[in-house]
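Protein data:
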Amino acid sequence: MIASPPEPCRQKSVACTGWQRDRVCSLADIRRVVERVYISLKENQFSEQEIFGVGLALEEAIVNAIKHGHQGRPGQSVLVRFQVGPDWVLVIVKDKGNGFDPNTVPDPCAPENLERPTGRGLFLMHAYMTWVRHNARGNCVAMGKRRREPPALPAVA
């Protein structure tokens, strides 16, 4: 069997029915995608704390897709889709890897895992997002965040 060539990495962003879409081909591309999400969150008046948390969760999901899903193989792209509204943000990160079972990931807070240099990505995603779900295969994570506080009301004269 001849392996098909890797899908070419398109770095151009494309809007699709309310969703923003991007591809990440390397760790260096992550900043560009996270910045796009930051801008959308700022436009919707999310707090700096909320923006930080969503950005960190997104970065962890993309890093996991590149390192674990694609095992660092060059030429593989990670699909990122996001949608931001006034009171919520939805993010989907999908890789082409074999997937994993999130229930088998060791607890990073367990004493035997505290000194490990890896294993905190899922923990951080759950800590900063309202909900986190994986597909059955384990190669796609969807995350949502609802605002804790509504945006400030405009001053009334």
Q: What stands out?
A: The chain has a mean pLDDT of 85. The chain has one domain: 14-146. The chain is about 30% helix and 20% strand. The first strand starts at residue 14 and ends at 16.
